[in-house]
Amino acid sequence: MPKTKEQKRTILKQLNDKITKAKSIIFTKYSGLTVKENEDLRLRLRQENNEYYVAKKTLFSLALKDKAITGLDVKKFTGQVAAIFGYSDEVSPAKIVGQFKKDKDKEGKIEFIGGVLENRYIDMDQVANLAILPSKQELYSKVVGAINAPVSGLVNALAGNIRNLIQVLKAVSDR
Questions:
Q1: What is the C-alpha to C-alpha distance for residues 78 and 114, in angstroms, rounded to an integer?
Q2: Burial of 116 per CB tally in 10 Å (0-12, 13-18, 19+)
Q3: 111 φ, ψ (degrees, to nearest 5)
Q4: Distance CA 116, CA 124 (A)
Q5: What is the fold, at CATH topology level, of the domain defined by 5-133?
Q6: What is the pLDDT of residues 128-163, one digit of tens each?
Q7: Angle (deg, nearest 10), helices 92-104 and 35-47
Q8: Which helix (H) or strand (E) holds 170?
């Protein structure tokens, strides 16, 4: 049943709010996802403060028109289009969909078709590259490890000298 103009205005307002709050938006083409697969993907996304949203391409296009995003024309996307809004982390929507594709979607029922990052359109290859980046937590732990490595190396070197001295003294006392 077609939506009324009032329903479309409401959806457009919701989309504008979502786009304004989102740090990144990933567009996917989906077809043939079962209800269970769809719910599993939505649950994974919700756990990381992301939202999976399906609307008509015309409504997406109208909502994005005011945002002055260069290179983006949602109407050119083929098939059924869903937008995934990332509210807390720019990379997590792409990572979650990428992991979902690897775990559950061997037939290619869901595919990246583009996205928006820092008010700039990114193509499907760039979105796929985002999906393989380490998470923020992994990057933080690598930075902390890199900062901590010289200090722990110095401590081990200093402790090694004392350890060697103790071993020499013990060897001398055993004679």
A1: 12
A2: buried
A3: -140, 145
A4: 11
A5: Alpha-Beta Plaits (3.30.70)
A6: 998 888 877 888 898 888 888 888 877 888 788 888
A7: 150
A8: helix 136-174
